Structures are given as structure tokens and as C-alpha cells.
## 1
Amino acid sequence: MSADVELGVPDLPTGSVEGVELNTVDLTVGYDGSPVIHGVSINVAPREVVSIVGPNGSGKSTLLKAIVGVLEPLGGSIRVGGRDVTGWRSENIARIGVGYVPQIDDVFAPLTVRENLEMGGYLLKSREVAPRIDHVMSVFPQLSRMAGRRAGKLSGGERKMLAMGRALMLAPALVVLDEPTANLAPIVAAAVLQQHVRQLAATGASVLVVEQRARAVLEISDRTYVLGGGQVRMEGTPAELATSSEFVESFLGGNTRSGV
Amino acid sequence: MSVFIASIGFGLVTAAVLALASVGFTLQFAVTNVLNLAYGGVMIVAAYAAYALNERGVNIWISAPAAILIGAVLSVLLNNLIYTPFGRRGTTPIAMVIVALGMTLILEFGTQALAGPTNVSYIMSQGATVKLGSIELTVVQLVIIGLSIVVMILVHGLIRYTRLGKAMRATAANRNLARNCGIRTDRVITVTWLISGALCGLAGLTFAMNSGTFGATSTDIFLVLILAAVFLGGPGEPYGAMLGALIIGLATEVSASIIVSDYKDVVAFVILLAMLTIRPTGLLGARA
Amino acid sequence: MVYYITTLLVYAGVDAIACLGLSQQFGVGGVTNFGFIIFQAAGAYVAGALSLPSDHVDGGFQSYILGWHLPFPFPWIGATVVGGLLAIPFALIVGKRIRGDFAAIGLLVTAVMFNLLVTNYVPLFNGAAGLSLVPSPLQGSFNPQSTGYQWGYGIVAILVAFATYLFVTRITESPYGRSLRAMRDNDTVADSLGKNVRSLRTSSLIIGGAIAGLSGGVLVGFINLWDPQAWGYAETVVLFAAVIIGGLGNHRGAMLGAVLVPVAFEEATRYIPPVPGNPNLIPALQWVVIGLLILVFLWFRPQGILPERRRKLATRFASEPGMQPGAMDSAPAPLADFAGPVTGPKPVGVTETEVTETETVGVGAADGQADAPPATSDVILECRDLVREFDGVRAVDGVSMAFQRGRLTGIIGPNGAGKSTVLAMLAGTLPSTSGQILFKGEDVTRLPAFRRARMGLVRTFQLASEFKRLTVLENLLTAIPDQEGDSFVGALRGRRRWGAQERELIDSAQAMLERFGLLGLADRYAGDLSGGQRRLVEIMRALMAQPAVLLLDEPMAGVHPRLAHDIGMQLVRLCEEGTTIVMVEHELSIMDEFCDPVYVLADGRVLAQGAMAALRAKEEVVEAYLVG
């Protein structure tokens, strides 16, 4: 895959965002009554980029889905900005300022780029929509060139830009991203993480990102949790983790697979 | 030749009724991914609702809102009490078809139990015949065409320009993502069924008007025309349904003037089967 | 009164026959044919038109084709044959990959269309008026109105129903029936195990169609008339309702449904006195109640009154107590000390080999062979420049790999590297965009999956793909190739022909279960097992297929490390016996222990290949994993 995404260097966005704190306490989530993650407690503070890494099947996506209301937890609690939102439906969680960029099905494929952004701004007053779209397009200049194109026809990198732009429309206080660099070429992936994900925190939001590319996401994180077998195995700053052999092992070794 | 041109006129009337029905049907499919095969049943119940007033002396045009109201309410009940609960249970698409067919039996034969097996007609005047070249249509038929055009414009306005229309499109495109944008998809779905149900009721009324006489099972064949129009345009695509309705309406009536009129509906069948096997996403659908 | 009972008998028989046909097609074969009524109608028409004299006779007030005035039993035979033949064009529609509900509509609409055509095209079967004065069978020799004849007919109808029951049961309870049920549960997997799904579906349609045709023939000989009103789409719904209420996948259930719905129900309501002023009320309400029954049953008891029976085939039972689902999750007992090879059935004249150390397979890794390509001499499976492009994304971007006979080759790589896609293309369950695949020297690139399976190339799946409504034992048995009873003819020949072989196969399947410690679960539905257990069933099932090359897609996912080790040992033994194994895995420790060589895929391309230890030392491999 070639580097088909041009990277503009974004200006600081107009106005900053009041980030909110995210806390999960002893969270247990699963499907059909059997838990995939258990007893997971994590925190994200405003202006922080917190990443969650771990091998395949460790429950990273499941955790995010519970936080944004797609899955109802089996146990534990979730607090956003001090408010208990455990078991809330996803449309209501979105309404209190949580933006979610899912891993797949991340755009409205039959709609154009502009319409996708409009949908993202559904909750805004109609006169606020256009300026907000302009702002998002200044953050992602490629989008303005493709405003009339159907989202389903975009390349992987362009789609991800759009997905993030759509989430940005509401200037979320907490941004949750599920493997934003999946299926992107390494150069593009690095750019997405460094330019955009890091930037979100710079504007004031709290950022929680799950990633497979552990090295790359570590570079932009303030703190990282390592998930394995449905539980938090390690936690620390990138500096602490990078020097830990246990960290490398947890990816290349075999002892973090849950034996369910 | 004049028979041919005249048939275009009839085709437009059929297309008008079909458009009302197909757009409603396709909207239901768009937001809930369910093929509401009980649609014909709701249509005929609505038609009878208007008849209930009409036979007691109320002018059919004043009885019309009864049909629209019944169509809307019945459709919402159908979705909220039947389709959604069955869907939540993980019922397979084929079992859902059987559920819909079962509902059709209940609606149509329930109506027949109450109203009796003989066909009925609205007490109404078809109005004078208007000639436009070789095309001869009654006033009522022209009204139906006009009504349909107005409704199509309203639907267009709804989908394109209102907030609700946006929410409907988002819900239809990607329900989970719509919820992540803060859209209350459950409400959107209920309102969509209300609106499409109203269209269904109106379609039932105009169908009954245009048919002359009608009975509880009269919409069985018409449902196939609806399916043909919907699949021609692409299931879930309202503009596709409009286009499909126009084509099917014209095709069936025009073919009646060319081949024996008894088989006119066969054209619709063939088109439907062709679309299902060759291009199920329809002419205006996304990808093949 | 007598007439009433005899009429009831005939209708019961006819409905039972029709429901059995539908049960076979839909309940066993999983083919949803909403056009089913057409076959019964065709049978009735053909039987009528065959037994009627030429249409010029009798004053020529009817018009129809045929009119050959054939004596009994030819009309019935004709009805059956036509019902079967008519199924063939349907097979063309039903097989296509379209959504179940779209296909259902297509078939339903086809039924309506046929009804319309027959109603309007008079020369065919006399249009809307239909056929009348259809001769009763043997009416030359007997008086059809006599009590004796009526009783005779009723009894014959019941006997034919019973014979049909025996026929469909014989088919369903054979290895062939097992394949049909496997196809019903998961046609993609059945395909990957060597079942010709298209031919299975077609034969299901033909059998069901023929039976439906027969039911039409029997009916028309009794009521002596047949018109389009008798076979609208409401009648189709009633048949489906009968089969669903009676019990899907159970032929006794189908007969029960036939008796309950069209017969008992109609008869029960006959006794309700008609409502004055609204004589149509009761008949109309009948339909409403049928609709309600459909909804009620689909909600509360979708499996029907007599659900499909679980086939208990096990002859041996586990010696250790406590073999339950979930037992695999805690540290399991060590696998039984396996004596003898792990391959499938017919362990004839086998020498016992001892458990060898696994290190022998992995040895040689450290001494600089990291980048040596495998010798081309004994390559049994290879792909060249394999590409998979979909929706503008290249999941696989020019992969070339060669797998040597008798080796356990591993494929690793981070998520999204394309490993599973490559595997799927090798097996044929996913088409390739470009590139070549050679198996045993032959180009199999365009060969469908089931043919590759029959050649000996078998795969497992990453996600749950057991046949849920078959038992664990049945799952294993479906995979075994060349079964005597696994064809229509073989099934018809009956248990006498395939019974002995089946017993042997059950034995070897049980032996396999025992080795993997799951013998106690032999008769449980595969869908009820825990994740790890289902994983094992998948592997065992693939082994039963006696593959030359086995493609495993993340077989250790969700399996306890101890058990994973034991499985690995089994796989190594298999390789020693000549089976070639290609294993996609995420667990790198498995690669360490068992696989040599190993391919590393990243971003849809081969990044490196060689022995695992050497690969671990390579920068770019480590980076690929951490970078993603």
C-alpha cells in the first residue's frame, strides 16, 4: 500500500476542549454471559493519551465497546467525568461527549464524505454544522478534496481520516479509538498516530486508543496498559515498558493467551 | 397505436399507486432490514377502514385519513410487537418470512371474517373522463397521480432536507455508527414505520379506488408488483423504489395492450426474478 | 358418515406425504422451497391429464394437454416423475448465493406466477375451471362410489404415506442423510470436507418434488378434480406451518403436523356451527388461527412438537468420570498414550510407534538454515504470486510459498497480515484474484473446494464451524470420504449395505475421540460444547478426512497450553506418517516446538522464512509483530 494520504500539519484547532476523566472500575464484559475481560480498571485523564495494547484475543475491543455503550457490562462500573454511565446506551454516551472511532464499519458507506461529517454533527444546531465541518476539514485537508465522494469508495487511509473527522464533529471530551491504524501502511499509520491522535490530546480531550502496533502507539502515549487474557497484565509509561523484557515477551511469547 | 398510448395513461395510474406502496415498503426495509411481507395485508386493512366509514355515508375523501391512520398505527405495532421481538431472538431471515406470512393470514382473513367474503366497492364517483390525446383517465385517476407526485416530493424533502431524514439515512446505512453520533435510532425506526405505514395506508386506499371492487385478498398479487418495483430500484433505496414503480407500472399496463391482458402481471414477475438472481442490489443499489 | 371418515383418511395420507416431502427438503436438506406447492399441483395436474381421455371426448368442454387415458398406476408414476423433473430448474435458482429471505421471495413469487399462468393459459390444464371428471384409479373394475372402494382408497393413501415415511427415513438415517444435515447446518464447511453441495441440494429438491408430485396424484384420483384455487400461496404457508409445528427435521413430526394442521384443525372447526349472517366467518377464522399458530410456535417452540432427534451412535463410553463441557478449561488429564497412528479409519496392519521427542523435528534450525528455501523436489502444495484483492484492498499481495511433503510448516504474522486469507485460497473456500495454486503437481487454482478436499486437501476454520445440530461423533463421521452409504443409491440400498462399514467407522471415530480425551462427549450436540472442545472437534474432524495436506487455521486458539502441546505432538506424528500440515498460528511458542519451516507474513507478503529460532533473531520479524 503506498502512502496515498497526504499529511497536512494541522493548526491548533479553534478553541480547545474540556476533557473529562474516564474511569473503569473492575469491569467485566463478555458475550452470552461468559466474560472476555474481567476486573479491568483503567483511567484516562484530560490531555492524556492512554493506549491499550496486547495480543490478539486479549479483549481490547471488548473493553472499548463496553465503554462506548455498544456492550452492556456484566460487572463493574464505568464513569465518565465523574458520572456513572454503566449500562448506558451508546446514543446517550455519545451525547455526553464521548466520541468513538470503531475499527470496522467506521463510516456511512453510501453517504458522501460531507454527509458523513454532517451525520457526525447531528446533535449540533444547524448553524453550527457548517463551521464545524470547515474546521474538521482544516484538520484533515484531504477530506475537503473528496467532499462529494461516497465514503464506501475511499481507500483505507482516507476512510480512517473520515472516521476520525466524523468523531471530531462534536468536539468530544473523551475520544475512544479502536485500532485506528489497522490495515494502514506503516508510514500512514505513524502519521495518523502522531499527527492526529496525539493532537486530540493537545486540544484538551482525553484519548483512549487500542492498538496492535505496540511500538508505534507507545511513542505517542502518556501511559499504556497491556491487556492479556482479559486482564490488565502491565501498566506503565512507555519508557518503563520499553525497557521491560516482560513486555516484549508478552507479545512474542505464549503465556498471555486465555485458556477458555 | 391509440390503445398503446392509452395504456400509458393506465400505466401512470398504476405507477402512482405502486410508488406510494413501494416507497413505504423500501423505507421499512432500509431501517430494519426486514422484508415486511405483511405489507399487502396492512394495505387492505386500511382500505377497509376507509370503507367502514364510506359505507355509512361518509365521503370517501373524508374517510381517507382513516386509512392513513390505520396504516400508520398498524405498521408501528407490527414492527414493535412482532418483527423487533422476533429479530432480537435471533430468528433467521427465512423464519422471519414465515412470520410475515403468518401475519398476512391474520390480517387478511381477520378482515374477511369481519367484512365477509364478497368483494366491495367504495361509494364514490369516478368523475368525468378527461382526454389528453389518446390518453383517457377519470378525474379520480388524475387525482391519484397528482397525489402520488405530491407525496413523492414530500418524501424527497423529508429525506434530503430534514433532520429526521438525515437520521433515517444514517440509521439505514449503519445503525451502530448512527447511535455513536447520538442518534436515537429506536425512535427513528418507530417514526419511519409510522411514516411508511401512512404511505401504506394511502396506497391501500388508492389501490382500492383504482381497482373498483376489492376483497380481503386483493393485494396478494399487488405485493408482487411492489416487490418487483423495490428490487428493481434496489431494496432500501427510496428513489429506486420510485423509479421501479414507474417502470413496473408502465411495463405491466403497456404489455397488457400488446400481449393478452391476463398475463400483464407476469412481466413484473419476470423482472423481479431477474433482479433477484442477477443483481439483488437493484439498479440504484450500492455494489453488486 | 363412512364417506366422511374415508375422506379424512385420504386427506390425512395425502397431507402426510406432502409434509414428508417438505420435511425431507426443508427439515433435513435445509432447502427452503417456498414454491413447494407447485410440485404437488404439477403432480395432480399430470396425474389427472394422464388418466383423462383426450380432451376432444366428452363433448370437449375441457381443454388440456396429454389426455392419454392411462390406467392406474401410470398416472401416479407420471405425477411422481414430473414432480421430480420440475425440481431441476428450481435447483438452478436455489443454489445461488443470495440472502435466504430474498431467495424465499423469489420462490414464493414463482409459485404465484405459475398459478397465474395456469389460470390464464387454458389449453394447458383448462385454466381457472381446472380439470374435472378425472377418472378414479381402476374405475373400470370397481365402483368408485362404493363403500369398499372408498375404504380401499383411504387405506391405500395411508399405506403410500407409510411407504414414503420409510423411504425418507431410510435416506435420512444413512450416511447420505448425515451429509445432507451437515450441508443444512453449514454448507461452506460441508463443501470444504468434500461434499458436493450443489448436487446434494439438487437431489433434495428432486426427492421432495417427486414426493410432492405423488401426493398430488393420490389426491386428484380421489376428488376427481383439480383447479388453481386448490394451490394458492396460502396452501404453501399451511404446509410450512404443519412441518414447523410438527417438528423440523423429524419425519414423525412432519406427519404429526400434517395430521394436526390441515386435517384435525379443519375438521375441528367444521363442527362449529356457522354464524348466521356471516357464513364465511368460520373458514376465514381458520386462516387467522393458522397464522396465530405459526407465530405462537415460532416464538415459544420453534423446534416443533417433536423436535429433531439426537442420534446416539456411540458404542464405547469414557472410563474416566466427569467428562463434561468445560472440563477442558481446567488442566486436563494428559492425552491417552497414543499407540498407533493418528490417521482416520482402517488401521490395518499398523506398526506401533513410540512417542518420539518433538525436538527432532525442530532440530537443525540453529545452524544457519534460516534462509534456505525448501528443496523443490518433494513439494506437494505450492502457491505462486497469489493475490487477493477485494474492494480495493489487497489482503494478499503476491505470496509464493512451497510446502514439502511430510513437514509441519507454520505461517505466522501479525493481525491483518493475510494468513487466513492465504489459507482460504489454498483450500478453495475463497477465490484468488490472481496467481496459481498447485497441488500434487496439478493446477487447482480454479477447482472448487470440495474437489480439492476429495483430492486430499482439507482445511479447518478459525471461527466456530462445527455442525451444530449433529453430534460430535456425527461431525467426525461426516468427514470420512468414500462411505458406502454416502450417496443416494447407497442410502437406498439400506443399512444392510453400509451398516458394517459404518460400525467400523464409528469405532475409528471413537478411537480418535478417546485419544483427544473427548470420548464422553461423543453423543452430545457439537453446538453445546465449550470453545476449546469445539476447536478439538474441528481438528479431529479434519483428520478423519484422511488428508494428504491438512491446513489448520489457528487450531490452538482458546486451547489450554498443555493440551495445545499434546495436539502439537499428535500433529508431528501425523507428519512422520506422511501427512503434510500447514498451520497458521498466532502462538509463537507452538512454532518453536513443532514447526519447521515457518513463513512470516506481514502486510500481505512473505516477510521471511526459515526455522523459528533464526527468525526470532531477525530484526524485521520482531518489528513486524510490535509494529503490527
## 2
Amino acid sequence: MVEDNGGALIHARALTKRFGTFTAVDAVDFDVRRGESFGFLGPNGAGKSSTMRMIGCVSPVSEGTLRVLGMDPGTDGPKIRARLGVVPQEDTLDVELTVRENLLIYGRYFDLPRSVVRERADRLLEFVQLDHRANERVDPLSGGLKRRLTIARALVSEPELLLLDEPTTGLDPQARHAVWDRLYRLKQQGVTQVLTTHYMDEAEQLCDRLVVMDNGKIVAEGTPRDLIVRYSTREVLEVRLPAANATAALAHLDGAADRVEVLPDRVLLYTHDGEEALSAVHALGVQPESALVRRSTLEDVFLHLTGRTLVD
Amino acid sequence: MSSPAVRSLQSWAYRYKRTWRGSAVSSVLQPVLFLAAMGLGLGSLVNRGHTGALGGVRYIVFLAPALLAAAAMQTAVMESSWPVMAAVKWLKTYDAMLATPLRVRDLLAGHLTWIGMRVLMVCSIFLVVMALFGAIQSPEAALLIPVGLLTGLAFAAPVAGYAVTLERDSGLTALFRFGVIPMFLF
């Protein structure tokens, strides 16, 4: 049954996923609208992938409401999956087959006629710039090429909604930019995208709107810019202090910024005007070893919200 | 239009079409070697004595159907152990399939049917090699094929069920060492 959720492609209320006594996703609410790029941002183990697997109709919902394309994943899984494209966290390619054969075999899962799949395969390989390697076996290809092939494969069924679980984790900078470029083009073509990432630059590049998850809960929601404005300052001054008089100097820095964060190797001063803060630091008689003024990024927001403790 | 289970089956056939050479060679070599070594080699010693216990036929004629059944079992266990575990854990072929309209039951039906087809291939080749060795005396020997298929499926389903539950493949090694090989030898 198709329901109207105000045009939302994905509609989640109090969505929960439990594994035994462990709660991976804890009553989250979110809506993803048609045509937007929506991100789940969070440290490892925050519940991003569990949420994605429920949206992808491969992991049953423990509690709460989830509607994908207006349907219930519990009863209409195959119908929903027919309209989704999935780029999983780990590549699931047929490594014995060639690049092109991977698209042909995948298209058949969707019951697309062979001629249609062949035509789309050629077009998609060109789109991800793999056409010149179409007849090579997948196994020896680099991680970046495999990732692009996985994206092409997810597009064989011409999905309305593309789910990307950590699309560029483990790739080198060139490969990441190549993937981002293709995802941006897809967005321009109107493909709705939902992605998870723990890279802030990726979220800033790709997401119109995102939620920050931590310990299974959504701790913040908004556009990348919104979040920076709300949870950080305009600029950040990073200073390194000489070890000898660092402790003494720290006591004075407090007045120079809205918020001061002391890290093992440097001190961050969150402020509206970094240069002014630096002058204030100098005026206090503190001589930093080095000082850097930069704009606030999503990373500052992220670390502010989820803490700096290493999560395993 | 084809049913989801048929599409899952087709994918295994498609993979096999591109990687069949190795397994085809062993499908022919295995019956040739066993029939030559045990049927003819060992048989030449057995045939010198009283063959009354063999029902009056040559040893190779007596032995060959058992070797075919054993080949059916081995093929079925082989195809339903490592390939199934790889599809779950290493290559994640099942994960890829489950992201599409295919359901778990389609994967099961398709893969088991494919293993059955592999058993049929192995049994058919075996029967032809038996004929070349002169080990067939009656047209009823063709019944070996359905018998081999049933034998294979009787092993394939539980072994596949076992393989999906494993965390490491040492369980499969043990299955061969303490299950399949003793059953073949004794």
C-alpha cells in the first residue's frame, strides 16, 4: 500500500534496531525528500550501517515505523528493493567475472531483459570511466576502480533511491574525488541519495542535509552550514605552545575565545575572529610555537557533538 | 519474465560458463582414474579368485555404480560447502543478490538447483566413462543418474545449511576429513 508522507521517500519514526540486548539504533526520527542528498554522519558503531540495512530491507525493523518509497519494508521488501540501488560498505562484486559481466549478471537479478542490460552496461561503464577496462577480470583491479564498478552496478536498475554505505572509505584522494564527481552528477540528474560516512569533507561535499549519530541516537540535524553555525564558531585558532610554559600560558588563554579546547599537542580557540584572538593571545604575553587561523568545519561540529574519545 | 529463483539459478550457471574448465577436467579425470585404478587394477586381482560374491560379474561392473554414487556425494558436498560459505562471508555474493528483489528462499532454491545440475553433469560424464570402460551391461544403468542426483541433494541441503552457520572454514575441513572421506573409503 502506498502512503503519502508529505513527499518523503524515506519516513522513519522511533525507528529501532536491537541485536539481543544491544540497541544499535535507538528510536530515531528522520525524513528523506525526493532529490536530496541525505547523510548519516557518526563514528564507528554509531548505528549508521544498521539504519542503512533497515532502509535497504535486508535487516528487519525491531520497533518503530519505517516507510521506504511509501511502502513497508516488512511486507514489500522485494518491491522496494526493485527500486533501490545499493552500494554496500564492502564490495560484493563477482571477482572471477569481468567488469562488464558484473553488470550483466546484476541486471538479471532485477529481471531486466538482456538487451536492456547490455545497453545500460555500456552507458554506465562510460559514466564511471571504466569502459576501457570492460573486459578485464575484477579481482586484480584497484579499490577505487572496484568502488566505481559497484556504483555503476547499483545504477543498472535505474533506481529512484541510491543507498551508499561509506562510499569512499579506504580510497586514495584521486579515487575519492572521482567518486564524488560521479555522485554529484547523479544528484544533478535527480537521483535521491542516502549515504553514511565518517569523513567530514565528504559530508560537506555531498550532503544537502545530514544527521549526526552517536550511540544509536541522532544528536543533531541540519545542513552542513547550519550545523557549523549552531555548534561551532565562525573561525578556529589553533596554537601550539612551548612545552615549558604551556601550563602557565593556558590559564590566561581562557578570556581570548568563546570556547577553548586543550588537546595533547595543541590548543583550539573557537572564536568569531581568529586574528583578533591571536592578537589577544600575544597581548597576554604568550608566544605560541605556531598559530593557524582557519574556518570552522563540520569536523569541529562532529568532535564537539561526539567527543574525542576513541570508539572501538 | 522469469521467476526470482530461476534468476538466482541463472546467475550460478552464468558464473560457471565463465569458469568451467577446471571443474570439467576433474569431472572426466576422476572417473577415469578411479575406474582404471580400482576397477581394472585392483579388479585384475579380484577377478582371479571366485567372483561368486560379486554376482558373477567382473569387479569393475560391480564397483562402478558405487564409485558414481560416491562422486555424486563428493560433488554435492564440495559445491555446497566452500562456495556457500564464500557467498556468505568472503565474496558476499548472497549479500549482493539480497540487495535486489531476490529473497532468501530464491537464493536457496536457485543455488540448490544449481548444485543438483552440477551433480547431474558429473554423473552423466561418469556414466559415459563407465561405458567406455565396458562397465555397463544393461540399459537400466541409466537409472544411476537419478539415483546419483538424489544422493547428491541428500548431502547438499544439510551441508549448505551447515556452511552458512560457520564462522571459520575449519568446520568444512573437518567435515571432509571425518565425514566424506571415511564414508567413501568404508
